[in-house]
Known about the structure:
- It is a single chain.
- The protein has one domain (3-162): L,D-transpeptidase catalytic domain-like (Beta Barrel).
- 4% of the residues lie in helices and 34% in strands.
- The protein contains 1 helix and 14 strands, in the order βββββββββββββαβ.
- The strands form 3 sheets. Strands 1, 2, 3, 6, 7, 11, 12, 13 and 14 form a 9-stranded mixed β-sheet that branches.
Amino acid sequence: MNIIIKNHFLIYKDFKCKCSIGRNGIKRFKKEGDLITPKGTFKLGIIYYRKDKIKYLNCKLKKKIIKNNMGWCDDSLSAKYNKEIRFPFKWRAEKLYRKDKIYDMFINILYNQKPIKKNKGSAIFLHLTNSKYRATKGCIAVLKKDFLKILPYIKQNTKISIK
């Protein structure tokens, strides 16, 4: 069963919760920096988390602890575009170890992967938000309590359908 994103809601099995999407909505054609959430069905990758913030994760996905020097390259001129990187890094990249808590845990949505196309968009994640549900730069964001409710049921073969 797929996770469904539709009309600012995340639906999975019998669970439904509010979610944030990209500031400029959901569209089929995405490019780097356009603030659009890509439309389509995508596989899910690794779950990243901060061990100092999340003590235990009940999940079936591969896990990776976020370290202080980790980032995600969003510079289409780099050979590491749309990939995890380590700082220091000479190209533009987003820090994964953040103070604002939105990346305390996140799942990499496998958008623009295999092959990675330059400038098609990077760092599309299912991550955390706060109760204000601010628009994202293209990701999907839910409250931590909602993320933790669905997480135990997400499997390696679960996909996300963004409509």
